[in-house]
């Protein structure tokens, strides 16, 4: 009898544990099973279309949630995956800053009340958040290239200032940094324990949100780093083009692309009707509302679960948001088809890609400097690079997006080096234009470095047409 009671008790306990486990998975409190590509089979963070998990039709709410990138369970990723006989040589990381306060406000409405102080016990939470604030408070004397030395090292306003990084943005990059630490330092020993300042290359634009995002990722990657070893370089251009920014043909492509965007807006009667309704609500001319770029502020409301603004004339609502977001998605689709943005991207991304392959080539020679490079940037930095690489199916860079170039050496053939390209943890190497056919002709699991070098040195200019074989000629060709 006693044995039977124990058996029934164990059976009931097992059933209870199974129920709890399923409940936790349902509410996303523990990770679910992993798909073959290393990404959760139910993940909402995929960048390439997936007929199994993607909505059957364009869903603006689904796309907006992806864009928000709200921190939740630990992200699974494919960074650092390689056959055992490959050695990781260097890593080059391009990030978009994390979640920020809007750059624009909807006219005649109250600004969304978002607190930009960092509070350890407030969601979203990260176990290193309090230590990050403490460490940043010790870095006031750090040496950064001007004008970065005048920027705050972490957000600290009870009511966010325009464009300021939020706690969500800090947590997003603490998570990115910790993920990269677990892979590149703990697993692959990319940097020695006594790493030196010249083994890092750090560069950011002159915005507090990009500097702070870079510092948050760096702190997750190298907790309690020595401030004396840290030096962020300042990049005046969002394209990170350094001394190669003057490019008339690139600007002509951009003008044509902006004209395409304008014509697409004119054809969208539902969009015009929506802007008209919103303009009446806030009592301003439609042109003024459109110029205020209301989607930027509406995304902040959406990502932070704050109600859209109301006036005595009514409320901006979710239907308005859906129409504008849907138009954004349609604009991205037409942008890929028309190819004008591709021309802009090939010229806009060339300088930073050229710097990257130069750094990789020095690493193949055995140089130990700049083994880990971090560029803290914007959506207008990452988007041209993605387009130039041929990643046409990649989604528009979300908050805290990361694009990573890995350089590997074959231990069995030390003179051979290969690259992997990853976007938000997904291996997209064989989706790039310079390596999409490689696996058809070679059994090697990675893309040869020479493919990327040839692409940057020659094929990017061939794709533009004309007779130019270098960046200067492509930027100044006549008759475009």
Automatic annotation (TrEMBL):
Organism: Pongo abelii (Sumatran orangutan)
Subunit and interaction comment: Interacts with B3GAT3; the interaction increases the 2-phosphoxylose phosphatase activity of PXYLP1 during completion of linkage region formation in a B3GAT3-mediated manner.
Domain of life from the UniProt record: Eukaryota
One GO MF term attached to the UniProt entry: phosphatase activity
Protein name: 2-phosphoxylose phosphatase 1
Catalytic activity: 3-O-[beta-D-GlcA-(1->3)-beta-D-Gal-(1->3)-beta-D-Gal-(1->4)-beta-D-2-O-P-Xyl]-L-seryl-[protein] + H2O = 3-O-(beta-D-GlcA-(1->3)-beta-D-Gal-(1->3)-beta-D-Gal-(1->4)-beta-D-Xyl)-L-seryl-[protein] + phosphate
Membrane topology recorded in Swiss-Prot or TrEMBL: Single-pass type II membrane protein
GO biological process: chondroitin sulfate proteoglycan biosynthetic process; glycosaminoglycan biosynthetic process; positive regulation of heparan sulfate proteoglycan biosynthetic process
Keyword Cell cycle: no
Pfam family, one: His_Phos_2
Alphabetized InterPro entries for the sequence: His_Pase_clade-2, His_PPase_superfam, Histidine_acid_phosphatase
Cellular localisation: Golgi apparatus membrane
Keyword hit for Hydrolase: yes
């Amino acid at each position: 009898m006693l044995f039977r009671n124990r058996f029934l008790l164990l059976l009931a306990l097992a059933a209870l544990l199974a129920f709890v486990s399923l409940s936790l998975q349902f509410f996303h409190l523990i990770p679910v099973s992993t798909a073959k590509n290393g990404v959760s089979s139910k993940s909402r963070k995929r960048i390439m279309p997936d007929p199994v998990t993607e909505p059957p039709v364009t869903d603006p709410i689904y796309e907006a949630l992806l864009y928000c990138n709200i921190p939740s369970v630990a992200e699974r990723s494919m960074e650092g995956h390689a056959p055992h006989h490959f050695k990781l040589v260097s890593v080059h990381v391009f990030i978009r800053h994390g979640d920020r306060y809007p750059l624009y406000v909807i006219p005649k409405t109250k600004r969304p009340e978002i607190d930009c102080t960092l509070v350890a016990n407030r969601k979203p939470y990260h176990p290193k958040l309090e230590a990050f604030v403490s460490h940043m408070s010790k870095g006031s004397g750090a040496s950064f290239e001007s004008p970065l030395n005048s920027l705050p090292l972490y957000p600290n306003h009870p009511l966010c200032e325009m464009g300021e990084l939020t706690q969500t943005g800090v947590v997003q990059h603490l998570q990115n940094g910790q993920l990269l630490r677990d892979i590149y330092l703990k697993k692959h020993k990319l940097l020695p324990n006594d790493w030196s300042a010249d083994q890092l290359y750090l560069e950011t634009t002159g915005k507090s949100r990009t500097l702070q995002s870079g510092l948050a990722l760096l702190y997750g990657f190298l907790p309690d780093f020595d401030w004396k070893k840290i030096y962020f370089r300042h990049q005046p251009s969002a394209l990170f083009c350094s001394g190669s920014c003057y490019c008339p043909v690139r600007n002509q492509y951009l003008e044509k692309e902006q004209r395409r965007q304008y014509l697409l807006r004119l054809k969208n009667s539902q969009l015009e009707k929506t802007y008209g309704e919103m303009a009446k609500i806030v009592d301003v001319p439609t042109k003024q509302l459109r110029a205020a770029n209301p989607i930027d502020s509406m995304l902040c409301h959406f990502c932070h679960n704050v109600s859209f603004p109301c006036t005595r004339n009514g409320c901006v609502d979710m239907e308005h948001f859906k129409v504008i977001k849907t138009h954004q998605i349609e604009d991205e689709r037409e942008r890929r088809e028309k190819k004008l943005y591709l021309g802009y991207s090939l010229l806009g991304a060339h300088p930073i890609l050229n710097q990257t392959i130069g750094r990789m080539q020095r690493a193949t020679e055995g140089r130990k400097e700049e083994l880990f490079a971090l560029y803290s940037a914007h959506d207008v930095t990452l988007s041209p690079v993605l387009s130039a690489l041929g990643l046409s199916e990649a989604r528009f860079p979300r908050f805290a997006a990361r694009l990573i170039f890995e350089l590997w050496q074959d231990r069995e053939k030390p003179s051979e080096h290969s690259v992997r390209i990853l976007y938000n943890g997904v291996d997209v190497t064989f989706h790039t234009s310079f390596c999409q056919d490689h696996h058809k002709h070679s059994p090697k699991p990675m893309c040869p470095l020479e493919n990327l070098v040839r692409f940057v040195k020659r094929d990017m200019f061939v794709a533009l047409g004309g007779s130019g074989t270098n960046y200067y000629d492509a930027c100044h060709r006549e008759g475009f």
